[in-house]
Write a structure and sequence with these properties.
By secondary structure, the protein is of the alpha+beta class. The protein is 35% helix and 34% strand. It has helices at 15-25, 28-31, 42-52, 105-120, 135-143, 172-185, 187-190; strands at residues 3-9, 59-65, 74-84, 89-96, 125-131, 147-158, 161-171, 193-196. It is globular and about 45 Å long. The mean pLDDT is 92.
Length: 199
C-alpha cells in the first residue's frame, strides 16, 4: 500500500495545525540538531509564521498525511531558504517527528526536495549545513550526492560546548547525471511513498 504525504506551506495551515507544528519544533529529538535549540514560545512561533508570508527567499513546508491538508496533523517540515535568484542557489533543511524517523521517509523527502529545487525553482546549486555529531544526516546527504565542501570549526555553542558545522552542496549537473541511478537504487523504497507539493 502506497503511503501518501503532501507538503503544504506552513502559512496555509490552520491555526490548530500550526500549533501542532510548534510541538514538533520543540521536541528534544528535533531541537538537538537545530542551530536555534531553545524552547520556542507560542508568540515566537506565530511571528515566525508571519515572516514566512513575506518575501520570496524562503519556502517552508509542513509535511502532512494526504487529505484535507490545511487541517492535517503535521509530521515534519522542510525549508528551502536563502534563495538567491541571481546566483540560482539556496540552502535547505528538514526535520521529522521522532515517530516517523527510521522509516525511510527522510530519504523520500530528500529526493523530492532536490528535484523541487532543481526542476521547479530552477536552481543550479543546493547547499546545506550539518552540525558536528549528526552522523545520520551526514550519511543521508552523502547517499544523495551532497559533497563535503568544508568544515567550520567550533562555530556554534550547544549545551555549553562548541561544535563545528559541515558545509555540503550539490549542483544541478551532478544531480541530473546521477538521478536515474538514485531512482534505480532506492526504487523499492520510493515506491512505498507518494509525496506531492502545493500548486
Amino acid at each position: 500500500m502506497i503511503k501518501k504525504y503532501g507538503f503544504v506551506f506552513v502559512s496555509d495551515l490552520s491555526y490548530e495545525a500550526q500549533m501542532r507544528l510548534l510541538n514538533i519544533r520543540n521536541k528534544e529529538s528535533v531541537r538537538k540538531w537545530m542551530f536555534s535549540d531553545h524552547i520556542i514560545g507560542k508568540d515566537e512561533h506565530i511571528k515566525w509564521i508571519e515572516r514566512l508570508k513575506t518575501g520570496d527567499r524562503q519556502r517552508t513546508f509542513a509535511l502532512v498525511e494526504d487529505g484535507d491538508r490545511a487541517f492535517c496533523e503535521p509530521i515534519g517540515f522542510a525549508s528551502v531558504n536563502n534563495i538567491d535568484a541571481k546566483h540560482k542557489k539556496a540552502s535547505w533543511a528538514f526535520y521529522l517527528d521522532e515517530d516517523f524517523q527510521g522509516l525511510g521517509l527522510g530519504a523520500v523527502i530528500e529526493f523530492n526536495i532536490i528535484n523541487y529545487c532543481f526542476d521547479d525553482l530552477g536552481l543550479d546549486k543546493l547547499n546545506c549545513e550539518v552540525i558536528e555529531g549528526n552522523t545520520a544526516t551526514l550519511k543521508l546527504h552523502s547517499k544523495f550526492l551532497f559533497q563535503n565542501e568544508g568544515f567550520i570549526r567550533e562555530n556554534i555553542i550547544k549545551e555549553g560546548k562548541r561544535l563545528g558545522v559541515y558545509l555540503l552542496g550539490i549542483t544541478r549537473n551532478e544531480w541530473r547525471a546521477a538521478r536515474a541511478e538514485i531512482e534505480r537504487k532506492y526504487g523499492a523504497l520510493f515506491s512505498k511513498y507518494q509525496l506531492s507539493f502545493p500548486d
